[in-house]
Design goal:
It comes from Acetobacterium tundrae. This protein has seven helices and ten strands. It is α/β, with parallel strands linked by helices. The strands form three sheets. The protein has a six-stranded parallel β-sheet, with helices on both faces. The chain has a two-stranded antiparallel sheet with strand order 1-2. The model has no long low-confidence stretch (mean pLDDT about 95).
Length: about 160
């Protein structure tokens, strides 16, 4: 479990981190270089890691097969509701969500902390506005999660 003690904000106990796949960890269905190593390092922190995706390119399972991630592929219909329900089921009060798309908005609003990635695919403005933190690529998001003082510095009052 990760514990983030954020002065003037709150103490967050993190058990789960949920990632979108395309536009978040991957571009055009292929993991961004360097994501593998950072995901593996993050898994050693005692948190559960998940990927929730509609898998636009049909590559998510293959791309993530050797990573310590639980992958859930949903149909493209109701993907937003499915992601939100998944976060609700595992415990939104102990879950960080990471994504970029419109279908990530509802899970952003449910989770204790959300990170929006702008990336080469861009991001949905509504999701960006709902996020607690915005970064420019998946490696920066993963570094935030690995170096928690960066989150503290960003969110403290």
């Amino acid at each position: 479990m990760l514990v983030l003690d954020i002065p003037g904000y709150e103490t967050i106990k993190v058990k789960n981190i949920v990632f979108d796949f395309n536009g978040t960890l991957a571009v055009d269905g292929v993991l961004v270089a360097g994501v593998n190593e950072k995901i593996t390092a993050l898994s050693e922190r005692g948190v559960h890691l998940y990927v929730l995706t509609a898998d636009t390119f049909g590559t998510a399972v293959r791309q993530c097969q050797n990573l310590p991630l639980d992958i859930h592929v949903f149909s493209q219909e109701n993907i937003s509701a499915n992601k939100m329900q998944f976060v609700q089921t595992i415990g939104p009060e102990t879950t960080i969500t990471v994504g970029n798309g419109r279908n990530d908005l509802a899970m952003f609003e449910k989770s204790i902390l959300s990170i929006c990635i702008i990336g080469s695919e861009g991001c949905c403005a509504k999701s960006m506005n709902a996020a607690d933190i915005i970064v420019s690529n998946p490696l920066d998001a993963l570094e935030l999660l690995l170096k928690n003082d960066r989150i503290v510095a960003t969110l403290r009052t």
